[in-house]
Amino acid sequence: MPEGPIDLRSDTVTQPTAEMREAMAGAEVGDDVFGEDPTILALERAAAQRMGKEAALLVPSGTMANLVALMTHCQPGEEVILGDQAHIIRAEGGAVSRIAGLLPAILPNTSDGGLEPDRVRSAVRGANIHHPKTTLLALENTQNFCGGAVLGESTTNELAAIAHELGLSTHMDGARIFNAEVATGISAARLAASMDSVTFCLSKGLSAPVGSLICSDADFIARARKNRKILGGGMRQAGIIAAAGLVALDTMVDRLAEDHTNAKRLAEGLVELGLEVDVERTETNIVVAPVPDALALAAQLADGGVLITVLSDTLARFVTHHGIEAADIGEALTRIAAVLKVAA
User: CB burial class (10 A; 0-12, 13-18, 19+) of residue 227?
Assistant: First the structure.
């Protein structure tokens, strides 16, 4: 059993594997801004292939990946349709407006992280000098703030078809799209096939230390490269980072199933402890528990040796990831039970 705290705050706390560290130490590198880092070029080719797109671009973070994509799709003053639970809205510092200069048109997310098709149609503004131009529809898969919900292929395709019919481009924040792939058995490429661009993170469940990829057609990626430079994301001998990403794509996708199994067991255990967790909606590696006071519970659990995060005043989040084993889930439930008994 672990002696220290069991960290269920996020899959961003994952540590690089020994194979990643070895690859990083021996990586062949060059100046990426000049397009001369062979390891980055290899990673970008691999990422594009996995997503079924022509090209890809490595950036330091998921937040930058989304921001670069938005800036490449849209001009300042234009409008992007987003769900109210979208990571772009809730957890990226307002960059969509502050830096990209875009107006968010915010619609309520459905429980699976999608959007109501009729609401999307209604949100697209017609030509009028008083209105911003609606340019982009942005979706998310899996949907973090909807409890790691998987956005289904048919839902994605339906919403993308509406957007394209109305002259919009489409972007997918696919930070955890490989969790969706493993949960559904449908490839990430198919899940993102109707999207004009898609991003994914290396540094969450895939356990690489840093990095995200933007995937799209070659012209889009060429324009995105300039926006990455504008944001200060032009890296030099960053093949050291890319080497870990290549290992992550090769070795860490299939093992996400372990995280999903552990999350389901955790959800079931929390129900046994009296929390109203929707076990059926625990599809991937995120467990959301409605509680009277999430901040107080997080503080009590931290004292009891379990680290979690809060989504709101009344929603607690537990995330399974590489480094958390089945035995850790059992021990976490034991510690949670002790805290809940004292709190009661």
Answer: buried
Given CATH 3.90.1150.10, say whether it is the number of domain 6-14+255-343: yes
Q: Please state which of the four CATH numbers 3.90.640.10, 3.40.640.10, 3.40.50.300, 3.30.1240.10 is assigned to the domain occupying 18-251.
A: 3.40.640.10
Residue the block writes with tokens 């199933």: 257
DSSP code of residue 312 = E
Res. 8: pLDDT tops 90: yes
Could you tell me the pTM of the whole model? Answer: 0.95
The full set of domain ranges for the chain reads: 6-14+255-343, 18-251
Q: How far apart are CA 329 and CA 342, in angstroms?
A: 20
Q: List the one residue out of 183, 190, 100 whose CA is nearest residue 154.
A: 190
Q: Which residue has the tokens 């300042």?
A: 76
d(Cα 37, Cα 27) in Å, to the nearest integer?
A: 10
**Any idea of the CA torsion for 234, 235, 236, 238, to the nearest 10 degrees?**
-150
In this model, does residue 209 exceed pLDDT 90? yes
Measure the CA–CA gap between 186 and 112, rounded to whole angstroms: 16
pLDDT tens profile 160-190: 999 999 999 999 999 999 999 999 999 999 9
For residues 105 and 192, give the distance between their C-alpha atoms in angstroms, rounded to a whole number: 22
